[in-house]
Amino acid sequence: MNKVTRRRLLQGAAAIAPLATLGWRRSANAQSKPIRLGHPSDFTGPSAAFARGQSNGIQMAIDQVNAEGGLLGRKLELVDRDSQMKPNLGTEHARELVTSGNVDFLFGPASSAVALAISNIAKQYKKIVMMSTPNTPRLLIELFHPYVFNVSPSGVMEARALADALAAKYQKFGFIGADFEAAHQGLKYFKDRVAIKNPKATFTTEQWPKLGESDYSPYITALLSSQPDAIYSYLFGADMIGFFKQSAAYGLPQKAPVGGLTFLVDLISLGQDMPDGMYGLMRAPFFAISNDAMTKFGADYKKRFDTYPDDNAILAHEGAHALFEAIRKAGTIDSDAVVKTLETISVPALTGTLKFRALDHQCNSPLYVGVTTKSDKYPFKILRDVQVVKAEDIWSTPQEIEAARNKT
Amino acid sequence: MILIQILSGISHGAVLFIAAAGLTLTFGVLRIANFAHGSLYMTGAFAAFSIVRWVGNSTAGFLTATVLAPLAAALLGAAIEFFLLRRIANRSNHYQLILTYSLTLIIADLAAMLYGRNHLSVPRPSLLDGGIAIAGFTFPFYNMVLIVVGLLVATLLALVFGFTRLGKIIQAAVMDSEMVVASGINVPQLHTLVFAAGAWLAGLAGALAAPVGSISVGMDAGIIVDCFAIVIIGGAGSISGAFIAAMVVGLTQSLGIIVAPRLASAFIFLVLFIILLVRPQGILGRA
Fold it and tell me: How many Å lie between the alpha carbon of A375 and the closest alpha carbon of chain B?
C-alpha cells in the first residue's frame, strides 16, 4: 500500500510541476485572457436533459455579458464536461478543470451525488461552485463550506411547499416513491410538515418501487386499495411517466390526486398522458411566471435552442447572473472577495430578486404549486391556479441548520 | 381487490415471460448468455415508437407497430448471429460474453444518437385505452391484452415445440447438440433461426411494453437483469420453466407489496435466492 501511494504522489508531483509554471506564466497577462467557467455536469444518462438545460441557460447569461463587453474587461467562456452521473468522474473533471484547465469558477451538475463530490473539490481548491439543480440538504447543511452556493430549492423546501398545499385539503395520504435515499428523506420531511399543519392527517400506505420500474400496476392497485384522499409521489423522469400513463386506466387520478416535484421535461415527455387535476410542484415554470424579462428569455431560448426553457435552464441562468453581478461588484475574480459580495447582494432575476443566505448559501428561489391542466398555447399540460411559495416560509431555520451541523 | 392485484401480477408476468422466453431459447440452443437481449427488447420499443409516429397514433398504428417492430428486432438478431456470433462460435464462452456485452454498449449509443437521451412516450391506442370494471375496481384493458398475448405466445411456443419438426430439432439441440449435428441438420442455419426467434420475442415484449411506460436508453439494462433472473428461476433453456417463473415472480411482486411494500425491489431476488437454495437447476431445469 505504502509503495503505491508514494509512487502516485511522485507521479502527481511530476504532473503538476510543469502545470504550475504554466499557470504562473498565464497569470502575467490575465487581463486579456477570458474568465473561464467550468461546468462538469451529467450530459449522458437519465439527467442529460437537465445538464443540457443548465448549459443553455448559463450560455445565454454569458452571451449577454459578452455582448456588453464582458466582465472586468474580460470575456467569459464556458467549458462543459460530462460527469455521466458518476461522482468519481465529476471529481476528476472538476479537479482537472481547476488545476490544469485554468477555470476560475465552477457550475454544478444535475445529480446530488455528483454535486457533493464537486463541492468537495471546490472546497479543496477554494473555487466558487454555483449549483442549480441538486436538492440534497447535505450540500448546504452538513457539508457546507464558504465556496458552495445553490440556486435550487432544497429537498426540505420542496417537501414543505407541497405538504402545505396538500395538508390543508386532505386527510389521508398515500405515498409512492422510487426506492432511493432522496425519496426516503423527502417522505420524512413531508410527514413532519403534514403533522404540524394537519395533526389529524394519516398515511394509508407507502409504496417503494425500484428506481426504473417499468410496471406500476401492482403499486397502483395497492395504493387504490388503501383508499387515500391524495397521494404524495417521489417519482421523476421515466418512473413518473410510467406511473401516470398506467394509473389513468385504473381511474387513480380521479380517486386521489397525485402531487409531486414536476420538471418541465417531464411535462413535455408526458404530453397529453399527464392527467388533469394533479398537483405539480415546480422550481421555475416559465409559463406561470409573467413578467417581461421571463417572456423575453422564453422567446429567445425557444428561438435559439428550439425547445422551451426548463427549470434547470432558468435556475442555472439566474445563478450565472448572480455570480457575474458579484464579480462585477467585487471588481475581482478572487474567490473570497466574490463570496463576500454574493452573501450581501440582491440580484434582480427572472423569478424575483435573488439573495443568498450567508448562513448556508441557500438562494431564496421560490417554489410554484399548481394543478395540471390542458393548455391551448403549448403541446403539453401546464399548471393553473399557481401559488408562489416564498423560500423564507419553508427553508430550514437557522436553529434547524445549527442542530443538524452539530450532530455531525 | 385481491383479484385485481392478482391480475396485475399476471400481466406483469406475461411481459416478463415473453422477454425471458427469448433469452432462455437462445441460451438453450446456442449456449450463449446473450447480454444483448435487453438491447433487442429496447430495439423493439424504439421501433414501435418510430412506427407509431410514422403510421399515426391510431389503432392501425399500434397494430402495425406490434407486427413490424418485433420483425425489426428479429432481423437485427439474425444479423448479429450471422455476422458476429457465428465467427466466434468455437471460441470459449468469454468471447461471447464480451461480444454480446459490447453490443449492448454499441446499440445503446446508436439509440442515443438516433433518438436522444430523453424519455419518449408511445400513446396507448384509443381502442385499448380504458378499463374493465371488476368487483368494483377498474382493471386496464391494455393489461388484459398483455395477459392474452402472453398466453398466445406460450401456446404458440408449445405448439411449435410439440407438433413441428423444427420444434423437435430445437428440443433435440437443447438436449444434445452434437447428436443434432451428427444427424445431418444444418446447425449454423438453425442457430441463426433460433437467435432471430429469440430476438423476435424480445422485440415483441419491447413493442408491447412501449405504450405502458416510457422508452429510453437504459430500459435495456433494466429488463436484462429480470430476464436472467427468470431464466435461472425457471431453469435455463426451459420455455415452460420461464413461463412458471415469470408468473411466480409477477405474483410474488404484486401480492408481496401488500404485505411488505418496503421489499418491492427485492422480491424477484428473494425468489431467485430461494430457488437457488432449494432447487439450483431451476424449477424445470435439468440437473
Answer: 18
Domain locations in chain B?
2-278
pLDDT over 90 for what percent of chain A?
80
Neighbours of A126 (CB within 10 A): 14
CATH architecture of the domain formed by B2-278? Orthogonal Bundle (1.10)
B62 contacts B52 by C-beta, under 8 angstroms: yes
pLDDT of residue A17: 46
| Sign for the pseudo-dihedral over CA of B199, B202, B208, B210 | negative
Angle at B123 between CA B122 and CA B128, to 5 degrees: 125
Give the DSSP letter of residue B261: G
All three cell numbers of A51, joined, read: 445538464
Q: Distance (Å) from the C-alpha of residue B123 to the closest C-alpha of chain A?
A: 7
Which pTM was predicted?
0.83
Instruction: Quickly list DSSP for A131-185.
Output: ESS---GGGTTTT--TTEEE-SPPHHHHHHHHHHHHHTT-SEEEEEE-SSHHHHH
CA distance A85 to chain B (A): 13
Concatenating the DSSP letter of every residue in A213-273 gives: ----HHHHHHHHHT--SEEEEE--THHHHHHHHHHHHTTHHHHS-EEEE--HHHHHHHGGG
Low-confidence ranges of chain B (pLDDT < 70): 287
Kindly determine whether residue A241 and residue B117, on different chains, have CB atoms separated by under 8 Å: no
Q: Say if the Cβ atoms of B211 and A225 lie within 8 Å.
A: no
Among A89, A78, A77, A106, CA closest to A45: A89
For position B185, what pLDDT does the model report?
86
Q: Which domains does chain A have, with CATH numbers?
A: 33-153+290-364 (3.40.50.2300), 156-282 (3.40.50.2300)
Encode pLDDT of B64-74 as tens digits. 999 999 999 99
SS3 B139: strand
Amino acid at A285: P
Tens digit of pLDDT for each residue in A121-178?
Answer: 999 999 999 999 999 999 999 999 999 999 999 999 999 999 999 998 999 999 999 9
What average pLDDT does chain A have? 91
B window 88-147, beta carbon within 8 A of A: 112, 117-121, 123-124, 129-131, 137-143
Name the residue among A117, A46, A111 with its Cα closest to residue A88. A117
Pairwise CA distance, residues B125 & B142, whole Å: 9
Q: Do the Cβ atoms of A366 and A388 come closer than 8 Å?
A: yes
| % pLDDT > 70, chain A | 92
